[in-house]
Each structure stands twice: as structure tokens, then as C-alpha cells.
Design goal:
This protein is an all-alpha fold. The chain is built from seven helices and no strands. The relative contact order is 0.19.
């Protein structure tokens, strides 16, 4: 069985990854990773805003034993809005926001007892389910960005 600390360490990998992108040249930062696909900037903005959404509407409520306030969102619209948001931020600001939001998530998650990680809150999700989903989400997007950067070198 994987411990709480191991789960949180894996979830924290986005922090170092995002910080590494600070050195990415602007043309790579804003360039499409493939025909018709997002740029690293768009992807990082998408990841940060999903982190922020789940922090406020799921993770904080779970930690406080309050009802989750997740809504049925139009994912495509949310993701389009995330890409637009990324255009309004400098690379440094977007990376800083990504790191700060993920660290805040980690801080709140650290305060949840490991014994509560498997409890399904409001019949919607557990901390473990959230961590698994977003760990996989992180890996998917970090893999896309890494493949793009390696292909550009």
C-alpha cells in the first residue's frame, strides 16, 4: 500500500516540473505542442485553474468536513477559458500561480488524516480518488510537454 506521504510526494512533482519551465524559451512556451494542440503555456494554465477549482470546491471542503461545492461544468468551456487566462499572464506569473496553488493543495491535503483518504465525501469523491485522477492528469500533460520540448531540441 502506498502511504499518504508517498501519494503527496507524487502529487508534488508538478511543482518542480512547472519551475523547470521558467527556462523554456518564449517560442517554445507559447508554441503549439502539435498541430491543433495547446502550447505549454495553455496546458500549465489549464492545470493551475483545475487545481484552483478543486482546491476551493473539493479539497478544502473535504478537509473541513463540509459538503463539496463541485458543479457540473462544461469542461470544454472551462478549458477554453483556461487557455485564454494563460494569455493574460506572464510566464513567470503563471508558473508562480501554478506552484503556489499546488503547494496550497498539498498543504490542505497534508492536514487531512490518512485514515480519511478513502472516505467518499458526499457520495462524490474521496481524497484518494482525487489524487489518482489528478496524478494521471499531471502525468499526461507533463508527458505531452516533455515530448514537445525534446522534439524541439
Amino acid at each position: 500500500m502506498v502511504s499518504k506521504q508517498e501519494k503527496l510526494e507524487a502529487f508534488a512533482e508538478l511543482v518542480a516540473f512547472a519551475e523547470e519551465l521558467e527556462h523554456l524559451p518564449e517560442e517554445q512556451w507559447s508554441g503549439s505542442i502539435a498541430e491543433g494542440k495547446w502550447s505549454p503555456r495553455d496546458i500549465i494554465s489549464h492545470m493551475m485553474l483545475w487545481d484552483n477549482y478543486f482546491l476551493e470546491h473539493a479539497v478544502r471542503p473535504m478537509a473541513a468536513h463540509q459538503p463539496l461545492t463541485l458543479k457540473n461544468l462544461d469542461f470544454d468551456e472551462f478549458n477554453r477559458d483556461a487557455a485564454v487566462y494563460g494569455l493574460t499572464q506572464s510566464k513567470a506569473d503563471l508558473i508562480r500561480q501554478t506552484v503556489e496553488t499546488r503547494r496550497e493543495l498539498l498543504n490542505v491535503l497534508q492536514g487531512i488524516p490518512e485514515a480519511e483518504f478513502g472516505i467518499k465525501h458526499g457520495g462524490v469523491m474521496s481524497v484518494d480518488e482525487y489524487l489518482i485522477d489528478f496524478y494521471e492528469h499531471d502525468r499526461h500533460h507533463m508527458g505531452q510537454i516533455r515530448a514537445y520540448i525534446e522534439g524541439q531540441e
